[in-house]
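Comment thread on ticket #2218

A.B. wrote:
> Attaching the input chain for the structure job we discussed in standup.
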Amino acid sequence: MRYRGLVSSLVARELKARYRGSALGFLWSFINPLLLLSIYSFVFAVVLPGAHTTEVEPYALFMVCGILPWTWFSSALSEASGALIAGGNLIKKVLFPAEILPIVSVLANMVHFFLGLPILIAFLIYYQRWPDAPDLFWFPVAVIVQLIFTAGLGLILAALTVHFRDIRDILSNILTLWFFATPIIYWIREAPGLGKTVLDLNPMTHIIVSYQEILFFRGPIGHWKWLLAMGGASALLFLAGFWLFDRLRDSFAEAV
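C.D. wrote:
> Ran it. Output below, let me know if you need it in another format.
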């Protein structure tokens, strides 16, 4: 990659800046998903204990398999959408490659995703639920597919938000709806007929379900065809996002 060194330094800067002045620092990478998991566990295991089937027990482990990748996805899009505005002083420099700013947001949040994996491992150890070794082959595939998909969306959002600032506010509401339209806090098989059709149209469904099948459910990975199809679609989305970004590139310096 041509700008590998620059991307690495910007990702490191992003990670350091996020927790600068924080007493707990990088520990928030563990605390934030644990707090979110605690909230949903309390609601759906204590307040609404009958809201899920026994097929997704232990429920906390089931949820963490979806919450960790979703947190990466939603945080990356939120930050990528405003990356060019926040980095306005950089993109006004003639030789600076503006496209790396949203990608840096995606990669920085991917690092947080990896930092949160010890939480998942701790849950697997506690509940003695070991993924089958052949299934783990699909884990890096799911990560790569999510990375490409998120980066493609990040490029599109970053390019458009420069000209339409309302996108950031709209995005926060869309992500809330998107979260509940993705089988994270419920099992996809619990969805009714029409609901299942809607879920199948949601790209994140196939990524999250793939994580669940790899890490939580026992048996063969039945969603691998969907995951590979998502990989191809994500590559096309990334190319389309880069094309749109490149078309609007000349307008960024003036717009920010």
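A.B. wrote:
> Thanks. Noting for the ticket: The chain has eleven helices and no strands.
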